[in-house]
């Protein structure tokens, strides 16, 4: 998945596991940027009585780099605290929850948002309430209204939300990790099966979202709102992290784990699927602990991706040009590690300098598209991935086509992509709740009562 259970150790710590990061110019407020980071993957909505929640012992952060160094020039830090209203019941709620302040909600969460910039730490908001999870039709009868109560204006044009949402990422994991198969192309696989539509592996699952909408002027290097996409100050880098204390012990008196010592990063995420399919398994956990500015050590995996060699092997005769291409993938290095410099795509750039770093690169001078194309830049829509990442961008298809060679001509005009490079996909789409047209844009989470568990087969 984009970053759901992407490394062995973080898969054992889902509360700190980042799943997706998004950064885009807000379509309904184009003088702002929306920053979104999702955590806690694969949440079954009916997981009571201990429903999913943010970790009180985790520091969640969204980082912005605007200096061309891939270092954190601005950090938005979210820390949470959980309250138990009635310690005599096992229930999450003791009646209907029609307001996020209702006493019937027994385990409310609150959070503090802190900004770290230029060595200065400033609290932007504190004790903001999260919404409850979507328990079901009786417990949370008007979930949309509850969720809206958790959208908080916090001054200076900023708006924030933290709570459960539907996972908008989509991918056919059941097929992709079954020897690299793509169901729409099953009949061309080394081990052929009948072609069929893709199956979204995250259908019916929720995530926990932190989302922040910020005026563009507060994010750029010179505190301006650039209007020229070729202006180097128009590009920002974005990634998310989660950190824990260096030591974590169970306190029997308190009945919970407590952290001790300095904070240590345990998860990070910039470009979707970077750690998932580019970094080798033996290095994934260490990658999660490192800052982006040291990513030059992973450049060899970007310029010689394992999947590039697997595609011609798994689909014999389908990718002959890709199989014969022996040059390092300079196109992928630009897309994932430096951004695209001026001159590669006419009228566009999202170059952040020579420092090789995995982060989303958003050109804030590119206005939102009236009719977004889910394939983003490769389809001519410069407002989409890899120019930042919108919620609706089909990043699996985009990255599959890039690895299959579709983007090689950007840097090597002598190369002719295989015909399949512009058609390859996993065949999925967002089958969870539809996206919203306003902040926080992600769809409402699936409800526990409404959930119908699926079926599986052993053969």
UniProtKB/TrEMBL annotation:
InterPro entries: DUF4331. It comes from the Bacteria. Residues 450-459 have a biased composition (Low complexity). This is DUF4331 domain-containing protein. Residues 1-15 have a biased composition (Basic and acidic residues). Coiled coil: none annotated. Residues 1-23, 440-459 are annotated as: Disordered.
